[in-house]
C-alpha cells in the first residue's frame, strides 16, 4: 500500500463507521422507520395468489432415440508379403524351431533355404548400400575424413592450421585466469597457461580471488579480484575467459584443462564469437570438408509417399548449417592492480 493510501485509511475507516447501516434484503424495517405507513392493523392483508391450473399432459409421443451407428472393429494390419524381409523376420524362427523339433531332411532343407534367402537379401542390400555411399558425397564419410595413412596427413595439416590460427588470434585476445592460492587445480593449471602464453605470445591476466600470489610463482603480475568474478558468474576455480578488448568476452571453462583441450576451446570460442572466419576455423579441424545433412523440419510438414520425391527433397535441402551466435557480453571492466 502506498503512503497516500495509508494516510487516508483512518479517515476512510471513520466514515465507514459513521455511515448508516442499510437493512439487509428480506429484513423488515423497524417500527419507527415506518411511521408514514401507520400501525400494522391499518394495512390490508396481501391477497394470496390464485392457484394456477396444472398443464395438461402432453399427448405427443416422444421420438424414439436415434440408434448409434455400429462400431466397426479396427482393421487388423495386413500380413507381410510372402518371403519379404518382414515375413522372414516373423517366420524364420518358427521354421528353425520346427526343424529342431522334427529334423527331417525336408524341414531342415526348408529352413536352410529360407535362411539363405534372408542372407542373400542382406548381401544385395549391402552391395547397393556401398554403391550408393560411394556415389553420394553427403553419405560418404571419406569425403569428410580419409581413412588409413591419409588420416595422419590430414591430422598434420590440421595441426599446422590450428597453430597458425592460434598465433594470429593471440595478437587480438587474452585470457583471464581466476584462481585461488589454496586451489590445487589452479596450481596445476598455471604452468599449462604459462607454456601456451610463451609459445603463442598470448597475454594471460591472472586474477586472485583471495588476493594472494600463486605458490608456484607463475604470473607474479596478478591482480586482486574487484568484483569481476561475481559479475561473470565464477563458481569454481580455475576459471578461464577469453577476452577481446574493448568489450568482447567468451567463457572457456571453470575447471582444469589440458593443453590440447585449451587450444581447441580457444578456437571454438573465437569462432563462436565471430572473431575467426568460418573457413579459417574449418581448416583447423581434421576434416577435408564438413558436409552435414540438416534439412529444416518446416520443409517437411508432409512426408511424400513416393520414395523418389522424398529422396529428391532430402538431397535438395542437404546443406551445412553452422550459425555463429552472438554471445551476450557482461561488464568486464579490468580489475585494479593490488
Automatic annotation (TrEMBL):
Taxonomic superkingdom: Bacteria
Signal peptide residues on this chain, from the entry's feature table: none
UniProt region (Disordered), positions on chain: 42-82, 313-338
Biased composition (Low complexity): 71-82
Biased composition (Pro residues): 46-70, 325-338
Domain Thioredoxin intervals: 116-272
InterPro entries tied to this protein: T4SS_TraF-like (IPR014111), Thioredoxin-like_sf (IPR036249), Thioredoxin_domain (IPR013766), TraF/TrbB (IPR039555)
Name of protein: Conjugal transfer protein TraF
Organism of provenance: Allochromatium humboldtianum
